[in-house]
Amino acid sequence: MCGICGVFNAYSPNEVQSMVQKLSHRGPDGNGVKSLSLGTLGHTRLAIVDVNGGHQPMKAEDYWIAFNGEIYNHQILRSQFLSDLDFDTQSDTETILRLFARFGEKAVSMLDGMFAFALHTPGKFLLARDPLGIKPLYWAEEDGKLYFASEIKALAEFSNNIREFPAGHYYHSELGLHQYYFLGQGIIPVAQTEEEAYPMIVDILRDAVHKRLMADVPLGVSLSGGLDSTIVAALAREGLDELHTFAVGMEGSEDIAASELAARALDTNHHILVYNDQEMLDALPNVIYHLETFDPSLVRSAIPNYFLAKMTADYVKVFLTGEGADELYAGYDYLDRYTEAPELDAELRNITSALHNTNLQRADRLSMAWGLEARVPFLDTQSISLAFSMPTEWKLHNGRTPKRLLRRACASLMPDEIAWRPKQKFSHGAGSRDVILEHANEKISDGEFGRESTRLASEWDYNLPNKEALFYYKMLREHFVDEQIMPGMGHSRSL
Question: Do residues 304 and 430 touch, judged by C-beta distance below 8 A?
Fold first, then answer.
């Protein structure tokens, strides 16, 4: 996992070096800048695969790349399509380079993983982002220069015209922007009954988890004691002799007690961090700087994520999380309002497609703030295809427990108390929600809230939901102007 940045259509080593410094938290294991005929590539490295041989920007033949992410099928690609070549490294980065040298831009759709990368080839260049937008990428055009970076903060010095690069797309300097992935695409056997679907769900998730155990460094799992994280931990435990798991919360938080129960059942090496009100408020400015949004729901859940990553980074460099299960299997309470399958299906597709600048943005930013890589097996493309191939009627709440389908499929992996534990947002289970809300209401006056609500609605068509949002917005404005954050900011539907 890394940070990437650069400028195309210009020779800009000094600018790119400045961008690399802004992304140093994403890559504590090294950095590099390379100027080429069409521009300059920058990279900060968190070494996960081929620790000694994966320095970037990397070259193979006449191709150069700055790559952020993991390609889980890179060894398969080598054996199936590139077996006649002599590789210089064991890195998945080199696999991408060799694949593009042979197949051109068609290689993007062959990659199974999470990624954002910039590729410099003879006479042309390419930017690409993974199907769901698990890995971040932003771009901006100024005076004929095309800037790109993993985070907004690396571009803020050079442009106000910053936009998020779309998930599931690539940009080719000669061919333009192309979409290569559509949500739910893929060939999956169709289950005829819910009972028939149960083993299919477990098998798909098992494959998704096990492929994400690929690492040459220590690896763990975020284990809040909820259904989703416990599924991931249980399946990961199958593939490992020992497993480190991690949970955080305030004193007396429900997540800590539930996580201890799950950890005992799975026999993991469990680590817990308890934080207090003041520590949470002290961390808030740093959380928002890294998060690059003031959406209240995201900020709330980002705070426990921040402490979780801080602790986890002391033990491992990679951890798996349960992100995406609520979107695929209708876990949120607000989805109660959808009583007909077509409407629920449309909403689930909507919120899954929006993950790139909501929950996935939170997961990436707060883990990378501590040089930690987060992997999300529920959002494996095969897992997504299976979830959307099943009748949506099976996911309707209609008085039933949310995520009943997923709970029944995976109940044998964990204690009943965990399998049927009610859904709680991370900020609720970790105990951080009410403290921030009260603090924000004390800091923001009614008059200020009214003035800013009117201005943001007029200038950006954005309706401030509460004083909490304005409290976060003011912190974010210490680092960015409206033009840099408002156009691409995601909005959680589950607030």
Answer: yes
Question: What are the residue boundaries of the structural domains of the chain, listed by start?
Answer: 2-179, 194-278+296-432
Shortest CA distance to 280 belongs to which of 64, 434, 103?
Answer: 434
Helices 227-238 and 254-266 cross at an angle (nearest 10°) of 20
pTM: 0.94
Q: Is residue 264 classed exposed, middle or buried when 0-12, 13-18 and 19+ CB atoms within 10 A define those classes? A: exposed
Is the Cβ–Cβ distance between 5 and 154 less than 8 Å? yes
* Cis-peptide, bond into residue 122, ω within 30° of zero: no
Classified by CATH at the fold level, domain 2-179 comes out as: Glutamine Phosphoribosylpyrophosphate, subunit 1, domain 1 (3.60.20)
Residue 421 has pLDDT above 90, yes or no: no
User: Residue 191: which of 199, 179, 183 has the closest Cα?
Assistant: 199
- Tell me 310's DSSP state: H
Which CATH architecture is the domain 194-278+296-432 placed in? 3-Layer(aba) Sandwich (3.40)
DSSP 72-104: TTHHHHHHHH-TTSPPS-S-HHHHHHHHHHHHG
Q: Position 72: which residue type?
A: Y
Are both 2-179 and 194-278+296-432 of the same fold? no
Please tell me which residue in 2, 128, 202, 227 is annotated as part of the active site.
2
Task: Determine the residue type at 399.
Answer: G
- Give the pair of three-digit tokens for residue 307: 């402490």
410 is catalytic: no
> Which single residue is written with the structure tokens 């209240």?
296
Structure-token pair, residue 222: 């975020």
C-alpha 419/C-alpha 322 separation (Å) is 14
The pLDDT tens digits for 138-189 are 999 999 999 999 999 999 999 999 999 999 999 999 999 999 999 988 878 8
